[in-house]
């Protein structure tokens, strides 16, 4: 028998043991591994509200004003509109398998839960530790951008306020909203997002209606541009503009009819973000001219969009654009806060983190301790940056969101592998496209982007050659994943009931009825009709 075969037998033995352990808990307690008296507020969010959270996390106006202008300026290539379409296509393929799995696993732990089901509990906990760091960095980094933009907006109306003071006001609002009803946050995001999309559409129409060369040019949409060597670097930058869409799955336990709501909302998030970014990037090239867009982006930087539309619209509309730029960042802050607090809740409920993190407020259903923890951590970081006078735009916003984006890309890559493994083990009624082809294609494409990002992270951070920052953050994620893996092994040895419930959600439900599986090959004689005896004989050291 090959080593791979022996490894698979050991894996099957452990999985069956964990499954029967979990069923024991369900029979004896009626609630599975969930020892928490409160739960997240269920049946609160419809498709539109979940879409608001996902698209708000992607922050389309922030991407259009900030990221697209930056890609034009830094890379110097006009293929930006096409690159956003390609990235949207890749993420749409990833979403096919991702949401197919969401129909079978409803868990606010999202990546953590999916990876634990597909690749094993140890790798699931590794993913959870990476997710906690990634989403936290994304959320905290956005405070730097909000503070700078809000300070500039106030200065334009004659008020003086430091970036830190503005960031702390946003922090206080996020801390309060994070403790209230999730559907209230959804409504806030809805109002902000609708206004944000409206101004994006108006600006796009103005730019296309006033072409620099006298006629609308489609040169930036020429497919031949995708053959240029800069395309991979552009994809690395562009994929960060979609970060946040995957957080829809974190809200699955609070959604109405989650098996349908989450799937529809996630697909809509990718499509909407892709269309908005691609069309806006093309409109910018039309207004500036395909031959001038790079030079204009380098000169105007994040003011590029406003400089292109300002000659053709009332000044009030420009002021509204600046204001909505600020609220777009706020919406993303709220969305990422919701994501990271619910990850902490899922881990606390299953006692991977201390059980107090699994407490939800009895009236609002908000994950109390997770929300407070993230708010406290953000406050400490903001005060430290303010005290040390560190640049909030470069070293708080740019650095933390790029590093956090790398972590989320790692999670998407691992999740695509988990989807493949999950549907290989049991198809669960999914067709070959959703259960096989799309996940395999997504894994291959994400592998290329992830490898390029890991190698080129230092260039994205714009650090000098030879700097420790070219590799230290990648190693940091490896350390986080290793700590999670080791912690899962410790739980398997010392707390088998907790280990059995890893990634299994509020009801401790197994996707597979392990007792119904055929007994794996073993040289020992066991009673195949008694899974508990099998567990006791096979794994006496963790009984």
Automatic annotation (TrEMBL):
<dbReference type="InterPro" id="IPR050367">
    <property type="entry name" value="APC_superfamily"/>
</dbReference>
<keyword id="KW-0472">Membrane</keyword>
<feature type="transmembrane region" description="Helical">
    <location>
        <begin position="231"/>
        <end position="251"/>
    </location>
</feature>
<feature type="region of interest" description="Disordered">
    <location>
        <begin position="520"/>
        <end position="543"/>
    </location>
</feature>
<protein>
    <submittedName>
        <fullName>Amino acid/polyamine/organocation transporter (APC superfamily)</fullName>
    </submittedName>
</protein>
<feature type="transmembrane region" description="Helical">
    <location>
        <begin position="436"/>
        <end position="457"/>
    </location>
</feature>
<keyword id="KW-0812">Transmembrane</keyword>
<feature type="transmembrane region" description="Helical">
    <location>
        <begin position="263"/>
        <end position="284"/>
    </location>
</feature>
<feature type="transmembrane region" description="Helical">
    <location>
        <begin position="320"/>
        <end position="343"/>
    </location>
</feature>
<feature type="domain" description="Amino acid permease/ SLC12A">
    <location>
        <begin position="50"/>
        <end position="493"/>
    </location>
</feature>
<feature type="transmembrane region" description="Helical">
    <location>
        <begin position="397"/>
        <end position="424"/>
    </location>
</feature>
<feature type="transmembrane region" description="Helical">
    <location>
        <begin position="81"/>
        <end position="102"/>
    </location>
</feature>
<dbReference type="Pfam" id="PF00324">
    <property type="entry name" value="AA_permease"/>
</dbReference>
<dbReference type="InterPro" id="IPR004841">
    <property type="entry name" value="AA-permease/SLC12A_dom"/>
</dbReference>
<feature type="transmembrane region" description="Helical">
    <location>
        <begin position="50"/>
        <end position="75"/>
    </location>
</feature>
<dbReference type="GO" id="GO:0016020">
    <property type="term" value="C:membrane"/>
</dbReference>
<feature type="transmembrane region" description="Helical">
    <location>
        <begin position="469"/>
        <end position="490"/>
    </location>
</feature>
<feature type="transmembrane region" description="Helical">
    <location>
        <begin position="189"/>
        <end position="211"/>
    </location>
</feature>
<feature type="transmembrane region" description="Helical">
    <location>
        <begin position="364"/>
        <end position="385"/>
    </location>
</feature>
<keyword id="KW-1133">Transmembrane helix</keyword>
<feature type="transmembrane region" description="Helical">
    <location>
        <begin position="161"/>
        <end position="182"/>
    </location>
</feature>
<feature type="transmembrane region" description="Helical">
    <location>
        <begin position="123"/>
        <end position="149"/>
    </location>
</feature>
<dbReference type="GO" id="GO:0055085">
    <property type="term" value="P:transmembrane transport"/>
</dbReference>
């Amino acid at each position: 028998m090959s080593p791979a075969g022996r490894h698979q037998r050991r894996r099957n033995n452990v999985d069956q043991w964990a499954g029967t352990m979990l069923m024991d808990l369900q029979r004896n307690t009626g609630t599975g591994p969930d020892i928490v008296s409160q739960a997240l507020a269920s049946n609160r969010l419809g498709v539109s509200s979940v879409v608001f959270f996902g698209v708000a996390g992607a922050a389309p106006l922030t991407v259009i004003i900030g990221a697209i202008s930056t890609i034009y300026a830094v890379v110097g290539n006009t293929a930006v509109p096409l690159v956003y379409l390609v990235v949207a296509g890749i993420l749409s393929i990833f979403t096919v398998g991702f949401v197919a799995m969401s129909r079978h696993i409803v868990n606010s732990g999202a990546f953590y839960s999916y990876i634990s089901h597909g690749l094993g509990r140890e790798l699931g906990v590794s993913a959870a530790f990476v997710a906690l760091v990634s989403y936290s960095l994304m959320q905290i980094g956005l405070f730097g951008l909000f503070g700078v933009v809000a300070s500039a907006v106030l200065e334009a109306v004659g008020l003086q306020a430091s970036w830190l003071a503005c960031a702390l006001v946003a922090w206080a609002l996020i801390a309060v909203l994070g403790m209230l009803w999730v559907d209230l946050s959804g409504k806030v995001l809805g109002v902000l997002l609708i206004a944000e999309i409206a101004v994006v559409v108006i600006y796009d129409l103005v730019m296309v209606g006033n072409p620099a060369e006298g006629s609308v040019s489609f040169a930036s949409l020429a497919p031949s541009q995708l053959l240029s060597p800069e395309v991979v670097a552009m994809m690395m930058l562009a994929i960060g503009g979609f970060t946040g869409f995957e957080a829809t799955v974190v809200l699955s336990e609070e959604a109405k009819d989650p098996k349908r709501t989450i799937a529809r909302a996630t697909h809509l998030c990718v499509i909407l973000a892709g269309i908005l970014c691609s069309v806006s990037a093309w409109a910018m090239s039309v207004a500036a001219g395909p031959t001038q867009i790079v030079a204009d982006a380098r000169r105007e930087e994040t003011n590029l969009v406003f400089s292109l539309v300002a000659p053709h619209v009332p000044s009030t509309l420009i002021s509204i654009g600046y204001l909505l730029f600020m609220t777009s960042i706020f919406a993303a802050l709220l969305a990422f806060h919701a994501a990271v607090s619910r990850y902490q809740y899922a881990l606390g409920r299953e006692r991977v983190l201390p059980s107090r993190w699994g407490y939800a407020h009895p009236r609002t259903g908000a994950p109390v301790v997770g929300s407070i923890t993230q708010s406290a951590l953000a406050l400490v970081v903001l005060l430290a940056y303010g005290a040390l006078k560190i640049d909030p735009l470069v070293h708080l916003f740019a650095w933390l969101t790029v590093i956090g984006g790398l972590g989320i890309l790692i999670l998407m890559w691992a999740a695509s592998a988990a989807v493949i493994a999950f549907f290989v083990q049991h198809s669960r009624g999914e067709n070959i496209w959703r259960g096989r082809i799309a996940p395999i294609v997504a894994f291959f494409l994400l592998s290329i982007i992830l490898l390029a990002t890991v190698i080129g992270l230092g260039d994205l951070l714009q650090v000098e050659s030879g700097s420790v920052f070219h590799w230290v953050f990648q190693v940091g994620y490896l350390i986080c994943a290793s700590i999670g893996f080791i912690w899962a092994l410790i739980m398997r040895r010392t707390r088998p009931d907790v280990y059995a419930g890893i990634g299994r959600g509020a009801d401790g439900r197994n996707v597979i009825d392990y007792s119904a599986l055929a007994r794996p090959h073993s040289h020992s004689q066991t009673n195949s009709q008694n899974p508990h005896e099998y567990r006791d004989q096979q794994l006496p050291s963790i009984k």
